[in-house]
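INPUT
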Amino acid sequence: MIAIGLEGSANKIAVGVISHPHPSKPPIVLANLRHTYNSPPGEGFQPKETALHHRAWVVRLIKQAVKQAGVKIEDIDCVCYTKGPGMFAPLQSTALAARTIALLWKKPLVGVNHCVGHIEMGRAITGANNPVVLYVSGGNTQVIAYSANRYRIFGETLDIAIGNCIDRFARVLMIPNDPFPGYNVEQLAKHGKHLVDIPYTVKGMDASFTGILAAAELLAKGIDEKLPPEKRLKTESGELVTKEDLCFSLQETVFAILVEITERAMAHVGATQVLVVGGVGSNVRLQQMMGLMARDRGGSVFATDERFCIDNGIMIAHAGLLEWGTGVTTPLEDSGCTQRFRTDEVYVGWRDD
Amino acid sequence: MVSPAAATIEPIAPLRPPTPPPSNPSRPLHTLPPPFTSSNLQLLAQGAEALVYKTTFLTPNTPCVVKYRPPKPYRHPTLDRRLTKARILAEARVLVRAGREGVSVPRVLGADWEAGWLVLGWVEGGSVRAVLDGWTERVKNRRKAYEASTGHAEEKEMLDLMSRIGSCIGHLHSIGIAHGDLTTSNIMLKSPSADLNSTTNGQAAVPSSTSSGSAIPSLAGQITLIDFGLASHMVPHSADEEGAVDLYVLERAFSATHPAAEPLFAEVLKAYGQSWKGAKGVLKRLEDVRLRGRKRSMLG
Amino acid sequence: MAQVRTILLPHFEDYPVQVAMFKDVTNASFLRSQLLQANPDFDYAFLDAAMILSPLPLFLAITLSLHSTLSPATSPLRTRTPHSELVFRLHPNNNIGESYRKFGISDDTTNLIAVKFSLTPDVTNESVAKHLSEAVQGVSVDVGEDGSELGLFADLSKIKKIYKVNDGGVKGKGGKKGVTDQVGTVKDERSALENIIMGVMTLKGS
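OUTPUT
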């Protein structure tokens, strides 16, 4: 079974081709390509520009992916695309491309939930069979556990997503967007030493991050080099607080929040495995903290690197092909997309545990 | 603007075989800080947040619960100390406040927030969860035996119990405290016989679910709320929401027990509605929370 | 010979505590002067029994001062000695002088509770009994195993005042349908007050 998958829910347009040789064998990646739209420093990506970017690139990516995969069109069983959640305009461009090739090649369509794509991809490449999943990206922050054919959300953000929080924090500090703000925050954090107080809000298994943004504005003002030294923010030992210290403090605080809500979910369902997926999941410090927590509970953490943490077409092809295998397809008239699409809305017919 | 010609496509390396991380069989055990030594402690629960032990404190006849929040190795030590202290104090303050206002909750017997422990009074009795489990079991059996009449007296007692639960929650909310984790396991029926200063260390008045189905337990005893680890003083602008979430969590716990238990919850809400002046606003908000399913729909 | 009760607090079994009670004490001012002079023979916590509601709050103060003595890293002593710490721990606020004025012995104290920690082997039930027999002019009151006599001379109104409990005591339980029987009311009020005191003592300094 072979599927092509199209992903475009945020600022990346990606196409992947995957083969499922046999249920007992691991899937084979035949092609996995993407192109990222980077907005200028200090700005986030806007829906209109991002959609234009996706439209400009999608045909080229599809052609190249099929060529690279070395498959004939007739070997492809289905066309998978991200139905949601995500930004509407970029999602729409991607869905349009998927419908076009499905009609052109006379293949069934499978609309895929982006979050489920991340989860299934993470499970496939790490071998974690039934983990609690922390899904952390620019648009999502969820703690998920599988139960009775659903990926149920145990905890989530009550306001903005973690990736969004880090991006906006970076923007306030004028940290560049290339390759992505979180990466640059992570590099700066490695040189930070002093922990600055940053709001820590956990409610049960849910988290809140908006308080951090308000604090970020104040902190950014406090380290402005144009201020006279006596007015600048200082540590307890009297040293000037640096941009590196702020990145360090941000990471230590928000990742502690994420690990804490994940641990609560693990205790709740009695799990010892944890899988981290989504763009923020490629952060090495987050993985390290999660590992320490899991070890304390007698378990372990499974993390993927940025090739699969970051949005990609393969995860959509993979999850779509699993669903197609259960006989589910998306009729043309239902092949739209949706900004809001909860992880627990998907019936997970391909798992029977 | 987009300039496709200037950029190149990123190829992504193909899948490699799964490499699960090494598991750790040598799991570190937590050692309690002084003065607690493991010899006379009985571990009751190991939650994500705290280890909960039963032991005695102050006198050999004063049973208590020790809640120990071990340091989290993943957390920066400064942040860890800050959070541990804040949470122990928050729980203790809420309990002292509730106790002063006459809500039946465990008493606070001591703490060292730098070391991470809090000692609370032991509540002798059974949980409402056990009561509900036993009751639904008997209802099922009666239905099988077609003897609906015998359940009449018990039905009345159950409704009275529900009413007391509703009043108790109303009382807690009326003093501005939200419980934060209001499940049926966290509502106890304190044994009337359990004297405050002496431990009977014996039979709880309400049998656990394992002994259900036969004798009908006494439903006397004071409604006592436990586990205030997630409790908070309500913020005025979100008090309706916090109160409604408490009720919603409890409603879910009722319906998870057994469908037959759901009508009982109406009685809880009825008594809650009459218990304090802010109840109307909370009940109205509860309708929204039900529709929303606690969580709002999320943007991608 | 004065009667002294040796208390073994759970988790502090290696550190016995000697407790004695006296009524009709006539030499309070002498005892107080010895404390003020820091006479090493008078290293005790002398407490006005009127301020002790019941054994548990006293045992909590003893426990907390012992804990601070043994684990200063997490719970530092806030006064100079374990005995002064005990007096300090009873008071709701952080003023040491005020703690001595309210809970310590005064010149007109007639009912007295004396507490001494056995932190060294030479301090035993016998040594304390012997010394107190000589030092205190008053009638020794036997303290039973559960310590219930320690609340015998409690002055409820003074105690309520210092812990800021209204005269109505603790508010009604469980609303209209409260299940407490009327017989239990006085006992309930005491135990409610006891719980408040212990809560306040626990939270002190937070």
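end of record. Chain B touches chain C through 49 residues (CB under 8 Å).
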